[in-house]
Amino acid sequence: MLLKRVAQTTYPPPPSGPVTRTGPIHCPSPPQPPEAPMQAAISAKSSTNRDQADSRSATGDHVLGQYIPLLYHYNMLQDEDRVGAFQQAINLLVSPGMHVVELGGGTGILSSFAARRGARVTCVERNAELVACARGLIRDNGLDEQIEVIHQDATEFVPDTEVDVVICEMLHVGLLREKQAQVIAAFKRRYRQAHGKKLPVFIPEVSILMAQPVHQSFDFSGYHAPVPMFQAPLLDQPRTTDFASLSAYATISYDEPIPLQFQVQEQLTAIRSGAINAIRFVTQNVLAVDMSKEQAITWPNQCLVLPIGSPFDVSKDDSIEMAFDYSAGGTIEQVAESMRLQVA
Ligand SMILES: C[S@@+](CC[C@H](N)C(=O)[O-])C[C@H]1O[C@@H](n2cnc3c(N)ncnc32)[C@H](O)[C@@H]1O
């Protein structure tokens, strides 16, 4: 019931603004990854959000499809909606003396919240530049006694002792592009082999993946460009008109078996007449649930609007068939190519 209410929440927009540095930075200079064609299509304006980050790197890290340039990591620090929601969840679930593991620690900010709650933290990161960055910043913040940064692929990591809380923020709309699902599934498998059946608590606890048919204005000052668009997680977007209620196609509880494939075929009812030309993907993450207050701490990803090849008209109350098929961590192209939307 609580999750249903969370799925229906209206999403706050993320902050935006230029890259700012407020203190000494010990991180290496960010590399300049090559521009990908999809990236060129979607990054018309600069953004604080990593959704527009190129997924390739000069180091070959693109194999896992989750390379995020250092500059985006710096920008992610100032995304107060993201950082604030995780801090709230960590403050709720972490207490002194706990052992906390962070999978994919980046600059180390989320690990620092757990350490400040008095936990011993193991922060696992596979990107060498970020390992150096995190170690420097953690030392400067006086937290190096409490946080150990381990340079390792999190899918191979096994903690030395039992863990109370696992933090993992490799979240992308639709669980696309980043490997949240695979990393947590691998961690659980290895953890159970080493420490028995009882799992730690996960932050986030749940991700709810939703989609809906929409009409999207792809006209930009008279220039028509039906291309993938990221948008602030605010359902009421001036360029977007929804044609059916949001449909939740997967609810992933990270302490239960995690699906790695999303094969969706749904019948929806048109809520208005007009032309449909895209599917909007919406993802809400429940970072923690405060049972005493019956309140969920949530963080929504940016929404993704993908155009369909053949726009069509519907009348109110028509039945619409929406189908798509992709793997967790898959590419936007994979979803786009699989999409089918038609009057049933
Ligand atoms: C979206 S960032 C989040 C970073 C940090 N937790 C934060 O909130 O600022 C995801 C991080 O996971 C790391 N990562 C991705 N795949 C990984 C893997 N298999 N093992 C370890 N780290 C990984 C990336 O290098 C990146 O630093």
Automatic annotation (TrEMBL):
Biased composition (Pro residues): 27-36
Molecular function GO terms recorded: histone methyltransferase activity; protein-arginine N-methyltransferase activity
Domain of life: Bacteria
GO biological process: one example: methylation
Chain ranges of the Methyltransferase domain: 100-190
Region (Disordered): 1-59
Biased composition regions of type Polar residues, renumbered to the chain: 44-58
Keyword Methyltransferase carried by entry: yes
UniProt keyword annotations, A-Z: Methyltransferase, Transferase, Ubiquinone
Name assigned to this protein: Bifunctional 3-demethylubiquinone-9 3-methyltransferase/ 2-octaprenyl-6-hydroxy phenol methylase
Species this protein is from: Novipirellula herctigrandis
